[in-house]
């Protein structure tokens, strides 16, 4: 048995994979350590989605490789999405790597930590006969999140043909977990002190569709709504074409379902959406937002946009700006297009210079900043339930928490400047009187 250190990069879906691997190793008897210097085995779970994420993964691999000569590390293992895209390159160009594990080879972590080599473990020949991996409630997990919050991956893979995205190539086809397995996992997490659960997948709205249940996510939300002591449940990464009436009703009618919809739209120009292989147009998307807001009173809608997609003209971008002004999103993230090999968009003509894409990104974020500040100011004077997270990362003088309309890590927070005493603990949900509003964050006092 050895001391194993873990570095998990990328999205929450990747984090869940890391938590499962940690659980498998711990159950086998390995000791998990947070010290790079003490770790005898280091595992890096990589992200390979866009260029910046790939570069971060490569830099981390090279950094951890140094521990093989200046620390106790005797094995270096690389896992995750980068392996699925660049398996051979990692094996041949980084000799310090002892084993690689793809996204569908999670159980191989045990062999990798014993004696599996980079050439014998996880080769393309060996993975072609292995079943696609999807964890269940019977697989052990060691949570890497705060004790009051957890992610549950309800599905894996993706069937959408978005031209800018390599995820179907990295994660495989879409497949859902069984509802009873998810509910069992949620009940276990709640017994362990979790009060907030975030449901994740490449497209959570398609949950259950692969086994014929077209209202799968709605049924799951209602089932999780029956778990006592589970204060909040939200789903992330909804696909706009798959929002159906029963899902909206389930969110509206389930008391502990967060009135929050994460809906990555990516653009509003019908010409660009067609190039992205997503469909829709400005008018249809505005009608969708109206349906959501009518069905779920008080809902907060978050979206993401991509600027600088191949062929995007100034007219396309101005249409996107006008759409964002009309849509009045509560939360918005903007990304400059990343030209990814092994995606259909990689071969499209009309590449937009990075400087132009970055200029457009900054301008769209300025537009959203004004919208966000105005919507936040509407909350001043209101008394709202806030999940207490603990001392703020920004200042020792403040605590921080989140509204149910603020998802962890990606949205703003509520800074707490008064009312904190020994009775207030991380994980509590307390009423907070909002007193100040900024571009993305709020300030208030525990009542």
Question: Could you walk me through the main structural features you see in this protein, from its secondary elements to its overall organization?
Answer:
By secondary structure, the protein is α/β, with parallel strands linked by helices. The protein has three domains: 3-127, Methylthiotransferase, N-terminal domain (Rossmann fold); 149-377, Alpha-Beta Horseshoe (pyruvate-formate lyase- activating enzyme), CATH 3.80.30; 383-446, Nucleic acid-binding proteins (OB fold (Dihydrolipoamide Acetyltransferase, E2P), Beta Barrel), CATH 2.40.50.140. 34% of the residues lie in helices and 20% in strands. The chain has helices at 12-28, 51-65, 67-70, 81-93, 109-112, 124-127, 167-171, 179-191, 216-224, 245-253, 270-275, 282-295, 314-327, 354-377, and strands at residues 3-8, 31-33, 41-46, 75-80, 99-101, 149-153, 155-156, 175-176, 196-200, 232-235, 260-262, 300-307, 331-336, 383-391, 399-402, 414-418, 429-437, 442-446. The protein is globular and about 60 Å long.
Short characterization:
The chain has 447 residues and is an alpha/beta fold. Helices cover 34% and strands 20% of the residues.
């Amino acid at each position: 048995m050895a001391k194993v250190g873990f570095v998990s990069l990328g999205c929450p879906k990747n984090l869940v994979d890391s938590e499962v691997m940690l659980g498998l190793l711990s159950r086998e008897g390995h000791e998990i350590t947070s010290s790079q210097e003490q770790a005898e085995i280091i595992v890096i779970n990589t992200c390979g989605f866009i260029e910046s994420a790939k570069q971060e993964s490569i830099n981390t691999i090279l950094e951890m490789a140094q521990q093989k000569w200046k620390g106790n590390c005797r094995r270096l293992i690389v896992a995750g999405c980068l392996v699925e895209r660049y398996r051979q390159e990692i094996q041949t160009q980084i000799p310090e790597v002892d084993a690689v594990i793809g996204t569908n080879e999670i159980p191989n972590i045990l062999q990798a930590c014993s004696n599996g080599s980079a050439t014998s473990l996880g080769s393309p020949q060996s993975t072609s006969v292995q079943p696609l991996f999807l964890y269940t409630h019977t697989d052990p997990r060691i949570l890497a999140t705060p004790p009051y919050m957890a992610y549950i991956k309800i599905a894996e893979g993706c069937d959408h043909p978005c031209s800018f995205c390599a995820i179907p190539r990295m994660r495989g086809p879409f497949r859902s977990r069984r509802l009873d397995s998810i509910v069992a996992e949620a009940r276990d997490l709640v017994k362990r002190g979790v009060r907030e659960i975030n449901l994740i997948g490449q497209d959570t709205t398609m949950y259950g569709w692969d086994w014929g249940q077209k209202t799968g996510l709605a049924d799951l939300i209602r089932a999780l709504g029956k778990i006592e002591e589970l204060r909040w449940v939200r789903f992330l990464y909804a696909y706009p074409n798959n929002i159906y009436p029963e899902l909206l009703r389930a969110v509206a009618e389930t008391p502990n379902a967060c009135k929050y919809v994460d809906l990555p739209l990516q653009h509003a120009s019908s010409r660009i959406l067609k190039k992205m292989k997503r469909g829709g147009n400005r008018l249809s998307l505005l009608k969708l937002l109206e349906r959501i807001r009518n069905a779920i009173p008080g809902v907060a809608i978050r979206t993401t946009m991509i600027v600088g997609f191949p062929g995007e003209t100034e007219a396309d971008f101005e249409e996107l700006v006008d759409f964002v002004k009309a849509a009045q999103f509560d939360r918005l993230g903007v990304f400059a297009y990343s030209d990814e090999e092994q995606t259909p968009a990689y071969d499209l003509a009309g590449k937009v210079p990075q400087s132009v894409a970055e200029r457009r990104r900054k301008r769209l974020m300025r537009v959203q900043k004004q919208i966000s500040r105005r919507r936040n100011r509407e909350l001043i004077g209101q008394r709202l339930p806030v999940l207490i997270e603990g001392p703020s990362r920004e200042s020792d003088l403040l605590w921080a928490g989140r509204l149910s309309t603020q998802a962890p890590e990606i949205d703003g927070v509520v800074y707490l400047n008064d009312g904190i005493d020994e009775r207030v603990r991380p994980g509590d949900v307390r009423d907070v009187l909002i007193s100040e509003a900024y571009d993305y964050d709020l300030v208030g006092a525990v009542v």
